[in-house]
Design goal:
The chain is α+β, with helices and mostly antiparallel strands and 171 residues long. Helices cover 33% and strands 28% of the residues. Pfam families: Acetyltransf_3.
Length: 171
């Protein structure tokens, strides 16, 4: 498939398109997304397409990177997102990820993060990246540490509760 940016053993990652609206609607309305990332008010298909246009596609246009759709190699089924975000309160890109509940705890997030980190090293001139998570999201903390991120204290996004800050130096 020509839209693949990169792949791993079980997964391929590509840029989001407006056709991914139904998937974004499903992912952003999962209980874990709302608990750990927050309600993005994606209440209609139109909201989901706007999220893609103003979120991932806006990041691609402005920074050349963004979050990527994660799909299974064998079926093409979309299962999550993984990639870089630009947070106004951080001076380097932030690695973010989220997966549908049926695909959590199966190693896909780890595989997607490792593949993304390799792609980021190869494709972008970034010396380090950050990741943030809530204190309650122990699974994300473990995944970040497994991927080589190191805890680096707290960061306080404007108007939000403090988040755990992780850093990974790329070489």
């Amino acid at each position: 498939m020509s839209d693949k940016l990169f792949q791993s053993t079980n997964l391929y990652l590509r840029r989001f398109t407006a056709d991914d609206g139904p998937f974004i609607f499903e992912l952003l309305n999962t209980p874990t997304w709302k608990q750990f990332i927050g309600d993005r008010n994606i209440n209609t298909h139109h909201d989901a397409v706007n999220y893609i246009t103003n979120g991932p596609q806006g990041l691609y246009a402005k920074y050349g990177y963004g979050p990527w759709l994660v799909s299974l190699n064998n079926t093409g089924e979309p299962i999550g997102m993984c990639g870089l975000f630009k947070r106004e309160y951080l001076d380097k890109p932030d690695l973010g990820f989220a997966f549908l509940p049926g695909f959590e705890g199966r190693g896909f997030a780890y595989e997607a993060c490792l593949a993304s980190l390799q792609y980021i090293k190869d494709a972008y001139k970034v010396d380090k990246i950050f990741a943030t998570t809530t204190d309650a999201n122990v699974r994300s903390q473990r995944l970040l540490e497994r991927c080589g991120f190191v805890s680096n204290g707290l960061v306080s996004p404007p108007g939000e509760a403090p988040l755990l800050l992780y850093v990974l130096t790329l070489q």
